[in-house]
Amino acid sequence: MGRGDVKTKKGKIFAGSFGKKRPAKVKKNVAPKAAAAKA
Fold first, then answer.
1. What value, to the nearest 5°, has the Cα angle with vertex 21 and ends 16 and 22?
2. Which of 5, 21, 24, 38 could hold 11 in an S-S bridge, CB 3.0 to 4.6 Å?
3. Which residue windows does the record flag with biased composition (Basic residues) (predicted)?
4. Quick check: 25 and 11 in contact, CB under 8 A?
5. How far apart are the first and last CA of the chain?
6. pLDDT by residue (tens digit) across 1-39?
7. ∠ CA 18-22-27 to the nearest 5 degrees?
């Protein structure tokens, strides 16, 4: 297991892909929907 193995985190970083071992960054919502609805 190493850089060539796409089933590992290191392999995913090397291949530039995402998956269960290396999830893509999730964008966080800055303003909550409840506060926006009240305003």
1. 40
2. 5
3. 19-30
4. no
5. 53
6. 788 898 888 989 999 999 888 888 877 777 666 666 666
7. 80
Longest dimension (CA), the chain: 53
Question: Within a 10 A sphere around the Cβ of 12, how many other Cβ atoms?
Answer: 19
Rounded to two decimals, the pTM is: 0.52
Alpha carbon distance 26, 14 (integer Å): 20
Q: Per the structure block, which two tokens stand in for 3?
A: 């850089």
Which pair of tokens denotes residue 37?
Answer: 């609805």
Tokens of 21: 């071992």
User: What residue type is assigned to position 28 of the chain?
Assistant: K
Q: Cα(36)–Cα(2) distance, rounded to whole angstroms?
A: 47
